[in-house]
Amino acid sequence: MYTLAFDPARPLDLVLLGRAAIDFNPVDYFQTLVESTTFKKYLGGSPANIAVGLSRLGKKCGFFCRVSDDRFGEYVVSEFEREGVDTSRVRPCANGEKLGLTFTEILSRDESSILMYRKNIADLALEPGDIDEAYIASAKALLISGTSLAQSPSREAALKAVALAQKTATPIIFDIDYRPYNWVSADEIALYYARVAQAADVILGSREEYDLTEALLDLPGSDKATSAYWQGKNAKIVVIKHGKKGSTAWVGDESYSIKPFPVQALKSFGGGDGYASAFLYGLLEGWPLMDCLELGSASASLLVGAHGCSCFMPTLDEVRKYIAKCKAEYGEMVARF
Amino acid sequence: MYTLAFDPARPLDLVLLGRAAIDFNPVDYFQTLVESTTFKKYLGGSPANIAVGLSRLGKKCGFFCRVSDDRFGEYVVSEFEREGVDTSRVRPCANGEKLGLTFTEILSRDESSILMYRKNIADLALEPGDIDEAYIASAKALLISGTSLAQSPSREAALKAVALAQKTATPIIFDIDYRPYNWVSADEIALYYARVAQAADVILGSREEYDLTEALLDLPGSDKATSAYWQGKNAKIVVIKHGKKGSTAWVGDESYSIKPFPVQALKSFGGGDGYASAFLYGLLEGWPLMDCLELGSASASLLVGAHGCSCFMPTLDEVRKYIAKCKAEYGEMVARF
Amino acid sequence: MYTLAFDPARPLDLVLLGRAAIDFNPVDYFQTLVESTTFKKYLGGSPANIAVGLSRLGKKCGFFCRVSDDRFGEYVVSEFEREGVDTSRVRPCANGEKLGLTFTEILSRDESSILMYRKNIADLALEPGDIDEAYIASAKALLISGTSLAQSPSREAALKAVALAQKTATPIIFDIDYRPYNWVSADEIALYYARVAQAADVILGSREEYDLTEALLDLPGSDKATSAYWQGKNAKIVVIKHGKKGSTAWVGDESYSIKPFPVQALKSFGGGDGYASAFLYGLLEGWPLMDCLELGSASASLLVGAHGCSCFMPTLDEVRKYIAKCKAEYGEMVARF
Amino acid sequence: MYTLAFDPARPLDLVLLGRAAIDFNPVDYFQTLVESTTFKKYLGGSPANIAVGLSRLGKKCGFFCRVSDDRFGEYVVSEFEREGVDTSRVRPCANGEKLGLTFTEILSRDESSILMYRKNIADLALEPGDIDEAYIASAKALLISGTSLAQSPSREAALKAVALAQKTATPIIFDIDYRPYNWVSADEIALYYARVAQAADVILGSREEYDLTEALLDLPGSDKATSAYWQGKNAKIVVIKHGKKGSTAWVGDESYSIKPFPVQALKSFGGGDGYASAFLYGLLEGWPLMDCLELGSASASLLVGAHGCSCFMPTLDEVRKYIAKCKAEYGEMVARF
Fold first, then answer.
1. A touches which chains (3+ CB pairs under 8 A)?
2. What interface predicted TM-score (ipTM) does this complex get?
3. Cα–Cα distance, D17 to D62 (Å, whole number)
4. Which pTM does this prediction carry?
């Protein structure tokens, strides 16, 4: 069994560090962005989605980020407040940086792409000076979203948060969350991902994301080797995702696998954030790993069927009802191997 | 009477230089952008709107601009083509510049504001190398939108277009079109506005815009002095706008004034582009100035009552019917002093 | 005869705008910079040299420029003060910009090249806000060095100085002074050179520099056409230099030519600044053009034989003695055609 | 005793990563840079000096760096070649970056300061792509100069070299070498210094440099705690310098201290590079630590009495004669406590 000690005396369940953004999803989907005429606005950005997801499941989250000093920045703060996420470390930018925008093109249930506005962007303006030890020490765990490492000064803010988490004995969760935007080379990706991975207690990533992380190491690229290597550093749990084939959590030499729940997807994204928030909920509750994975997989399925991300995050009751419904229909072992 | 010689042998009626952008206007208006949830996407950017307006009135326009190398850039090209604007000089950007975005906040019929994405922006990536003499020499006139002067290399592209228009005896129309974004100082505004104004045959601007243009000159800031000064350079017609009080066109010592048509405005912007396109239509047709002004004023009124700009530009028949309707209701002299 | 009205009531003879820099000239010349081991430090930068030259000839100069906020900036100020140049408009940079450095490689009497440090450079940090009308109005003339136009914000500072010179009826001298560094395209060069040239009362340049200036105009590239075109704008005197073949000043249809004085050159640069300062001295004194040219040519010859530039600028007595000596040796018409 | 395994089969004794630059030292010193008129040009930059020092002592060094694509870059390559440093990884910059320049102001034997040109600089243009595993694997050790961490992409090049040294079992020497230029915050310094320090086998730094390195750690700032902490990571030897009071090398709980040799200093810099090269020579030879320290201290004393750095690096015979001379004059225990 895994051993992760969350200090029950700490008031926040999780502090996340990374981007909050706005998703504009077309109402008239299944065509290109050239043709789409009408868009819905949603709070987005992977760690923002995870924070909202965990809040809806009943956990208290805080968030280190910078937002634009305009209505869109106000929108992020207002959404976080509505969802119960602490916004004391969500600060406006000083130099006119803008909130990241994501325009989604949903061509079919399998094909979607995104058009991103991510230059001169608010979230990557997070500074080391924004990161304070007291806030990290008030949380049971710290989650670093890998995209925050793509550029200075956000990169150094994230590395400082890692250093202060180590100093304050705060478990570190590393969600690799690779996005090609903003990175300048594969070497940079490998250097900074590996830096945070070797300090992390829990790592979440796809096979491709681990390959990027391990590019300067002498590893064969197998799940077993990946799991062993990072556990040889500081990791207690190594989760490796394989898309529609499911995902596996490694603890020592043992592995626990889960499959996706049966679902009619509307779009091919959003599942990862549902997965992460529900899986981390289970960990914070001290659940057995298989139960954490099952909750994660069910939440993922709910998300890929929804039009947006953060505002479709389910409550615990909703995921549980969904699991029960699936089990009634497909058998107790739905999702489990 | 004014004397503007448009060469009838030239195939294009007008080449415009400046920005094309996307407007996102909220469907759920009369609230802030924090609350608005649903947005309509429209082709925008003042000179793009004017080009569409003139096309709908039956004139053939060309356009010098750069657009993003993505779906939004494709959208601009596809809208221009649908409207009959020549896109042979509309080119994709090479360095990831993005199309400008304008999110409109319509708080009431009188109060609206905009949230702009205009950093690292496609239209200001227009380069001197994009401007060719042959295309300018193929047009009856060249319109420079003042916003193109805000930043290099677009600034030099615009100045080169002015130089080539002078070389090819192409009349120059300067639409001052002041936007605070991207400019770094009042001195820069004054220097570059005055540079183009002194080469222009027709100048269109508000009193405030002329004040910016004349900041380094020894002028009293009166309409009479403004008109005299620029006619002392190269101007044949100097149009000075005074918002809801109407506008005046000066030719020599004579002035011609028009008032707005009676209208229930939905928003406080968009009128200027309707005005410019219809006024220029009249000029290109060789109409008497008062008729040009009347058509401009009527088109402006139609636009402020519409949800967007470019795609609500009227045909000649529509403006004429609107004028006739207003005259039937309010008298022949509606809008005229 | 030329007509240039210098207001005798104005206390400063000339205000110059442009760069001050440091030249490091090798003591162990006639080898490459790889081998040279020892360097002499001199005040440099073409307009700084001209200011020192005019001062030594007895004229009072002022200078608009920015220098580095370090010992090298102090050095410029201290040299200017030692030479009697007014330094009230010589200001330190605020953002760590450094003074331009020029390392000279003198391979032979004919071949020299330079290695320049001109990125993030102090002189191009001159801002429009540095330029005040009162100072320009206190000078008999304004000299714009073309290199100041290469980059913002120095470019706009120069254009503002031109605008304020026009406003205060201050004659403008344009020394084209082309250097390839910092410029980004031939179109930019043509646009900004032509802008200042059309406002200038006196223009100084080589044939190549006029070709750059006229690239967007419809001119044949002959001296006669060049002279006529710019006199058709605002120029009273157009000086065109042809290197070792001498130079010609045009006034109306008349031209006045001078040859170089016989000289054993040490290096192939520096002559132009000696020429400009002595020629302008003559103009400010109201001399006949041929006498201005003779003084200029003699000063040029003195400079190409010296190890540095500014600190080898001659006094009036020294140039006159040199001219007398040459005439004694080579005949009264030495240098004159 | 320390245990550092250098693979005798590897052809290069040391590969260094960091800056090569040019020092201009005034011949007419003991005055400010305003007054100094004549300068000598020397190869400079701390790791370049160390490479030359080690070469003169008989070791074969390689060097990862970028130099300017001009005569000064050629000069660096030619100096390295003259000294026997391998230049196969010394590459010219592609984007006009210039070699760093250091102008030294020697006010007195105790007071000196420097004026640096370090913007848009060649050495910080070193890229991760410049670093190859084979070259590192061909060297007995890798030295990282801390200044290379100040800015991207040199920062990532250094981190990649560290990663590849770990992969190829190449001992890492970290010379903290703090220079305030180019760094943007104390947090950045702490993050990147600590990153390399925890991978290093040998660390060289002053007390102040260790304080910067440990700013985000929970350490008391004593030499004993510093030494213990880094040995708890990967360090075998921790050298802490205390300026004129001498320096101490820690191995386990044991410490070895050395004092400066008696010397009449000409300037207050340069000693560190003499120290490092001679100390590392001893290590590479497998000498007892006290002998390494003695050689380092003697070389340091020779350097502070010289006009430049790299070209005054002593041979083994010269240091030994100097030590012998000092011992004859001051006793066998000169420099030893």
1. B, D
2. 0.94
3. 9
4. 0.95
